[in-house]
Design a protein that fits this description.
Helix content of chain A: 25-40%
Shape of chain A: globular
Largest sheet of chain A: 6 strands, mixed
Number of helices of chain A: 7
Number of helices of chain B: 14
Helix content of chain B: 40-55%
Radius of gyration of chain B: 32 Å
CATH architecture of chain A: 3-Layer(aba) Sandwich
Strand content of chain A: 25-35%
Distance between the termini of chain A: 24 Å
Strand content of chain B: 15-25%
Largest sheet of chain B: 6 strands, mixed, barrel
Order of helices and strands of chain B: HHEHEEEEEHEEHEEEHEEHHHEHHHHH
Structural class of chain B: alpha+beta
Radius of gyration of chain A: 17 Å
CATH superfamily of chain A: P-loop containing nucleotide triphosphate hydrolases
Largest interface: A-B, 31 and 28 residues
Distance between the termini of chain B: 29 Å
Structural class of chain A: alpha/beta
Number of domains of chain B: 2
Oligomer: heterodimer
């Protein structure tokens, strides 16, 4: 059984179909990239996979559970327990330090543990910057804090929306290296991107166009 | 973590929270000032109104019956009150509300020009040692403070020489052609005396055709030592309500609970009742016109204060509502993020409300002390005296501030509950 199954899902806004009868399977431990031009339905798909939205039609099975029928409250719980989110704009709480931003995710999941949060920051190379506020960190450092926050609760899936969209090349490479490391450790990664280089780092790429799966590409040269 | 987040918001975002605290402080200060003034204004206005004279008169029971039958003022022959019981007035339950009082005895005297005039015996500034151990100065010099002394000065009982002294109404003085320092001869039923005129007053009424002399002088001239024909009392009273009206008609008709409430409230009727209890064979009755006017003025002043307090709190609630809603909207991405990483609506709402309550407490404390300062400014400006700090205002303002802050936060909480992480995180 796949970790994530999207079965004939559509998202319809009035007469607009943001997603049109899309079906995708993601296996446990797989690294999938979702590509497509603006308006192709990437963000809509990410919202649905990330339990932040529900499809108008179809089923979404996460770990065998149909999340398309769940209430908003249950979706929050599923998101908290099973999904780690990384955003293009980082979205850190600006009045909390780096380590506190990681601990916030622990707080809403179970119990905050500063030692564990520090270890997560060390893993992304930021133990020296743990007590800094987001405004005192570079874009690359902020994104690494987001990665640490996404991983802290050991999610089933890490869902990243344009994770390198606001980064320079050096920081992009640091983040991709982190993803490779996560993949080696067995973490399931779904990365929404418009950057071919980021997509090429994944095992498999799905290209969306006008809300439909235009093509699927297996990366023959994929290497951890 | 909750407290670290709270500290982060309160310390690192102190500018925003300070604005909210200031708005709350402004509302709390207005409420504090108005409530303190409102609770003290009754006493203050009453004190002001007391300068317009007595609001309770006490007659002997027999004289009162005649008054009721014939609708005339004054005592009946052979019906007197006892001077020795006067001090008892300051021993009743509402003793502290008795601001001033003066005994009266009057008689008609003949003058040298052959004419007759009313001679009134009373206290001017009589020093009285009370059974309670306290002492006070009471009499017409404070009870008739509106008298305009046009010649000489007020009669000072405490500095009076052996000679009999008197104050003349302007009508009598003009008729006799006398002024302060002159001596007039009066002849009463049981004696005659030479009275030195120490002052001439203009009262603007019947009193201008009367002579006022110390009580014992008139008692000697009428052979009524230790007796009084009436007492006038100036008391701070509470405006009448239905209970007071019912009690004034017949206190025996009240239930025990009603009786206790009425007896322990400073209604004019309950003070009259208590005076009757300590002055033998007396009938005390409120001067309705004065008591009613005082009541009306007090009620209107209270109403005005209540309206201003409500309006100031409404204004504060609107200000808080706008600021908190704006703050939540500004923090939309942060709140969306918290929801995205697993925070339920209740925990996010709880955090925002806790921030508001803490800010409200800080603003409320600052506002309370500022408001007390405002109350003093109002007190000194309007009444020329300090406004007393009422302990009851603290819990009232506390509850009002928390309620107004929470009510003002409702629109913000509604906005917060409507926030969908997918929308705010994608900047939609």
């Amino acid at each position: 059984m796949s970790l994530l199954e999207l079965k004939n899902i559509s998202k319809i806004y009035g007469e607009l179909k943001a997603l049109d009868n899309v079906s995708i399977n993601v296996e446990k431990g797989e690294w999938l990239a979702i590509m497509g031009p603006s308006g192709s339905g990437k963000s809509t798909m990410m919202n649905i996979i990330g339990c932040m939205d529900k499809p108008s039609l179809g089923e979404v099975l996460l770990d065998g559970v149909d999340i398309s029928k769940e209430s908003a409250k249950n979706l929050t719980t599923i998101r908290r327990d099973k999904i780690g989110l990384i955003f293009q704009q980082f979205h850190l709480v600006n009045y909390l330090t780096a380590v506190e931003n990681v601990m916030v995710a622990q707080y809403y999941h179970s119990l905050p543990d500063e030692k564990e949060a520090m270890e997560a920051l060390a893993r992304v190379g930021l133990s020296e910057r743990a007590k800094h506020l987001p405004s005192q960190l570079s874009g690359g450092e902020q994104q690494r804090v987001c990665v640490a926050r996404a991983l802290i609760n050991h999610p089933e899936v890490v869902l990243a929306d344009e994770p390198t969209g606001n980064l320079d090349e050096a920081n992009e490479n640091i983040v991709l290296d982190l993803f490779r490391q996560l993949h080696r450790e067995g973490t399931t990664l779904i990365v929404v991107t418009h950057d071919p280089e980021v997509a090429e780092a994944a095992q498999r790429t799905i290209v969306l166009d006008h809300g439909r799966v235009a093509r699927e590409v297996i990366n023959e040269n994929f290497a951890d | 973590m909750f407290f670290r987040m709270l500290r982060g918001i309160l310390v690192r975002q102190k500018g925003k929270m300070l604005m909210i605290a200031l708005t709350i402080a402004l509302g709390a200060s207005l409420a504090t000032a108005m409530l303190n003034v409102m609770m003290d204004v009754g006493d203050k206005v009453n004190q002001e109104l007391k300068t317009y004279g007595a609001n309770i008169t006490v007659y002997p029971k027999n004289a009162s019956i005649l008054n009721d039958i014939y609708d005339v003022e004054g005592g009946a022959q052979d019906a007197y009150l006892k001077e020795s019981e006067l001090g008892n007035i300051k021993t009743i339950f509402w003793a502290f509300n008795i601001v001033d009082f003066a005994p009266f005895i009057d008689t008609t005297v003949s003058l040298d020009d052959g004419g007759e005039v009313t001679l009134v015996g009373t206290w001017f500034n009589h020093h009285l040692d009370l059974p309670t151990g306290e002492s006070l100065d009471a009499g017409v010099s404070s009870l008739r403070s509106w008298w305009d002394v046009t010649s000489g000065a007020w009669l000072d009982e405490q500095a009076m020489a052996d000679a009999d002294e008197a104050m003349l109404g302007s009508g009598v003085a003009s008729r006799l052609g006398v002024k302060a320092g002159d001596v007039i001869h009066v002849k009463a039923s049981s004696g005659e005396a030479d009275l030195t005129v120490v002052g001439v007053y203009d009262a603007g009424g019947d009193e201008d055709d009367q002579i006022y002399a110390p009580l014992d002088t008139v008692q000697r001239l009428t052979d009524t030592d230790g007796l009084l024909s009436s007492i006038e009392v100036s008391a701070i009273t509470t405006p009448d309500n239905e209970l007071a009206v019912k009690a004034a008609q017949n206190p025996a008709a009240l239930t025990i609970a009603q009786y206790e409430t009425w007896y322990c409230t400073a209604y004019a009727s309950s003070i009259c009742y208590q005076i009757q209890e300590v002055i033998t064979d007396s009938v005390a009755s409120p001067v309705r016109q004065v008591a009613d006017s005082e009541g009306e003025i007090l009620e209107k002043t209270h109403l005005l204060m209540v309206l201003i307090t409500i309006l100031s709190l409404l204004g504060s609630a609107l200000g808080i509502s706008n600021l908190v809603t704006a703050s939540v909207m500004e923090r939309g991405a942060e709140i969306g993020l918290l929801k995205a990483i697993g925070a339920h609506d209740a925990s996010v709402s709880g955090m925002v409300l806790t921030e508001i309550v803490i800010t409200a407490i800080i603003g409320g404390v600052v506002g309370y002390f500022a408001g007390f300062g405002f109350a003093q400014i109002i007190g000194q400006t309007v009444f020329g005296s300090a406004i007393e700090m009422k302990a009851m205002v603290i819990p009232i303002v506390g509850v009002l501030v928390i309620c107004v802050s929470l009510a003002g936060s409702i629109p913000a909480i509604r906005t917060l509950l409507r926030l969908r992480p997918a929308e705010v995180l994608h900047g939609r």
